Amino acid sequence: MSALPPCPQCSSPYSYPDGALLMCPECGHAWSPARPEAEAEAESGAETVKDANGNVLQDGDDVIVIKDLPVKGAPKPVKAGTKVRKIRLVDGDHDISCRIDGFGAMALKSQFVRKA
Predict the structure, then answer these.
(1) 4-25 burial, b if ≥16 CB within 10 A, otherwise e?
(2) How many CA atoms lie within 13 A of 75 on its CB side?
(3) How confident is the model at residue 46 (pLDDT cuts 50, 70, 90)?
(4) Does residue 103 contact residue 48 with C-beta atoms inside 8 Å?
């Protein structure tokens, strides 16, 4: 057997080195063996959500949109500078659930907001 650690995401024992990273052939996850704190964070499920500036976001925070964001089905985009109050963090690609005045409930990506 290999002395390489199992995949932190799916626990597959078939990890292999690929340059500076370790790869999992079963789930496709790539991780750095030099960062055990990142593996521990992934295993515990306690992922932190950060805004565009690297500030940690929490439920109930207020954020500001930093880029015009087009909205499907709406005649106008959410403008940069729009303040969003009382966000909720959720799992998934769009990790912020919120309500924006004039648009209603929607999901945003944390990379397009900054903490107010």
Answers:
(1) eeebbbeeeeebeeeeeebbbe
(2) 1
(3) low
(4) no
**pLDDT reading at 27 higher than 90:** no
- Please, what sign has the CA dihedral across residues 15, 21, 27, 28? negative
Mean pLDDT of 60-85: 94
Question: Using an 8 Å Cβ cutoff, are 113 and 84 in contact?
Answer: yes
Residue with token string 């005045």: 101
Smallest CA-to-CA distance from 77 within 105, 97, 110, 102 is with: 102
DSSP 36: H
